[in-house]
Fold:
Amino acid sequence: QVQLVQSGGGLVQAGGSLRLSCAASGRTSSSLAMGWFRQAPGREREFVAANSGGSTYYADSVKGRFTISRDNVQNTVFLQMNSLQPVDTAVYYCGASPGVWDYYGMDYWGKGTLVTVSL
Structure:
């Protein structure tokens, strides 16, 4: 089992920045894939970014604005979000998978944190 504890998020004006954190505990390792997904009101959950096997992956909608990074000592993954826009408003979920994952989801989830971007 892997437990994920998220922090960060909140309200920001368009063009602003926020940083999300997600600390993993339990059966963690440097090979654990970790990433971020989001779900906007009335929409399905969508992939945002992931760090897996030393590589990073991004949704086209956030490339160049969001950066995922990882501290393997602290078993923590971060999502730096810059140039935020109202369309980025969503509940952001941290995910982790010890094995295969895909853009539809991961095996373990954090509780989610709300990011609201105002005009």
In short: The two ends are 40 Å apart (CA to CA). The mean pLDDT is 95. The longest strand covers residues 18-26.
